[in-house]
Design a protein that fits this description.
- The protein has 17 helices and 13 strands.
- It is α+β, with helices and mostly antiparallel strands.
- The strands form three sheets. Strands 1, 2, 3, 4, 5, 6 and 7 form a seven-stranded mixed beta sheet that branches.
- β11 and β12 form a beta hairpin.
- The protein is globular, with a radius of gyration of 29 Å.
């Protein structure tokens, strides 16, 4: 697996898109880096940029961006609602795949060392890259903001980790860190009062508020035995929050950083703000995400609100996302495009899926053309997807059946399983065609020298094994779908029992069709041990599919007859 890290630098410019474009051009100039999102805010006068790639190109792109921001942004003239101390205010690195937090922190230090040695800017390391405990918290590192830097840099305790301990009036200072995935999230209120917004922020954030005797606002601060103020913790662990007024929108917001989305998922933070606002006579009108968000966060939110409505969670992914967007009001202030705001969707765009993007007629026409692909493997995967889709439909219809209101969750669970199997099989539609193309590409490799012949042979064998593994996976997933299909034939909406029956026929066809592709490709593979095992397992799956389809078909006909 490739090592992937995400970088989310925040630049102190939210008005001049020409400046932002020059900075992002530097990022995009680095090969191996994918720019995912550029999110400017006028009121905060700040732009959050997100890009991803392998560690080395990412830190090179970050260095170029920090350098360009220092050239173009003058902090002595900057003002905005958000705390800030530099032209590049913060530059966190986040582990995404195949890399540990410790390794990510080392890359953060490489970036700090490189930038500190060349750019004449003070750099502080924070979170998991911090050089001392008191610098872990970004708010502590940024205390005093830009205006406090001249005095701060004179103190021995605030000597930068990298770069000179001298005030750079134009570029300010930058915090570089390694941290877990953080969601920057703002919830909109029907008030213009910052004081009232802050009261909600104190209710929600982990750090809560200072404890007071008697009146919670005017009462005397309660201190502990060491003389430090005691605090009343807020409702949400791993959440930082403040209230502010956004002139651009004319409303107050609760601005939150969710630093651990396992401790507090997005929808939980939203609901807690809702509860606090309601208690205080205010109302939440919507919310906004700053930067990108993992797909799971949106799916968890959508499923939460579907369950709250006592509706099946086994609907299409796009429907779950739509429910999340509408329930959270993410489109209140600006349009919310899941393709641009969800990390996995951005990365998915890198991998073309030409067959899945076709309509039904175009797919049939392409299959019927003189081109050898898509062939039987892709069609088997698609037929399998249709089979489990029918069973999933029965589950969702059963979940919504008026006389079965109490069983919505039971059928929703079956539908959710079906959706997962459907999505796996749909992905294999294009994957099978890709495997065929891999063989063609390997065959076309040069074969002049002995070395070229050896390379070509190895490539053909590798591509052939891949062309066996893909339809074998189709067999496995299609066979797995029989559990859901059978359940829906047995306990699902009786008016849809024939849909489950057709689903069983499709699943059996998918297993048989995919096995034909396994067998024909296996004849060209020299790894006979692998071939023997695959064929043995394949025969078992054929028998299991025949048995399952026969039982379901009998059940369906018996129900029709009765």
């Amino acid at each position: 697996m490739k090592q992937l890290i995400e970088c989310v630098p925040n630049f102190s410019e939210g008005h001049d898109m020409n400046i932002i474009k020059q900075i992002t051009n530097e990022i995009e100039s680095v090969e191996g880096v994918k720019l995912l999102d550029v999110d400017p805010g006028k009121a905060t006068n700040r732009t959050v940029v997100t890009f991803v790639g392998e560690p080395e190109p990412v830190i090179h792109a970050a260095f170029l961006a920090i350098k360009k921001a220092a050239e173009l942004i003058d902090m002595s003239k900057h003002s905005g609602e958000h705390p800030r101390m530099g032209a590049t205010d913060v530059c966190p690195l986040i582990p995404i795949a195949g890399i540990t937090m410790e390794e990510t922190a080392k890359w953060a230090h490489k970036l700090g060392e490189m930038a500190g040695g060349e750019l004449n800017i003070p750099f502080y390391m924070y979170e998991n890259a911090a050089t001392r405990p008191e610098r872990r918290n970004l708010a502590t590192v940024r205390s005093g903001e830009y205006e406090g830097l001249p005095e701060k840099l004179k103190k021995a305790d605030w000597k930068p980790d990298y770069g000179p301990a001298r005030f750079n009036s134009k570029a300010g200072a930058t915090a570089i860190g390694a941290r877990d995935f953080l969601i920057a999230y703002n919830v909109n209120l029907n008030t213009t009062s910052v004081r009232r917004a802050n009261s909600i922020a104190f209710d929600v954030r982990e750090n809560g508020r200072v404890k007071r005797a008697g009146n919670p606002i005017t009462g005397k601060v309660v201190n502990d035995k060491n003389g430090n103020p005691e605090r009343v913790p807020g409702a949400c662990k791993s959440v930082k929050a403040i209230g502010w007024y956004i002139e651009e929108y004319g409303v107050a917001q609760i601005s939150m950083n969710l630093t651990n989305i396992i401790d507090t998922p997005l929808h939980v933070a939203f609901e807690e703000v809702n509860k606090s606002a309601d208690r205080r006579g205010m109302r939440v009108t919507g919310s906004e995400l700053v930067g990108l968000v993992p797909l799971k966060v949106m799916l968890d939110a959508g499923k939460y609100f579907l369950k709250k409505q006592q509706r099946s969670t086994g609907v299409a992914e796009s429907e779950i996302i739509k429910i999340a967007v509408k329930s959270l009001g993410l489109d209140e202030l600006t349009p919310f495009d899941p393709r641009q705001k969800i990390i996995e969707y951005q990365l998915r765009a890198e991998k073309p899926t030409p067959l899945l993007n076709m309509d039904l007629r175009a797919f049939a026409n392409e299959t019927a053309s003189e081109s050898p692909a898509p062939g039987g493997g892709s069609i088997s995967a698609y037929v399998g997807a249709l089979g489990i889709s029918l069973a999933t439909m029965v589950a969702n219809l059963s979940s919504h059946r008026r006389v079965w209101d109490a069983r919505w969750e039971e059928f929703g669970d079956w539908a959710e399983k079906g959706q997962k199997l459907k999505d796996d099989l749909l992905a294999l539609v294009d994957e099978d065609t890709n495997s065929f193309n891999e063989i063609i590409n390997a065959i076309r490799l040069p074969k002049g020298t002995d070395a070229e012949k050896a390379t070509r042979k190895e490539a053909i064998q590798s591509a052939t094994k891949y062309a066996i593994e893909v339809p074998f996976k189709v067999m496995q997933v299609s066979l797995e779908s029989f559990d859901t299909i059978k359940a829906m034939a047995e306990i699902g909406n009786p008016n849809s029992v024939t849909d489950a029956g057709v689903g069983a026929l499709c699943a059996r066809a998918a297993v048989h069709g995919a096995y034909m592709n396994v067998k024909i490709n296996a004849g060209d593979l020299e790894d006979k041990k692998f071939v023997a095992q695959v064929l043995k397992d394949g025969e078992k799956m054929i028998k299991a599919a025949d048995k399952a389809e026969k039982a379901i078909t009998k059940l369906v006909h018996d129900k029709i007859a009765s």
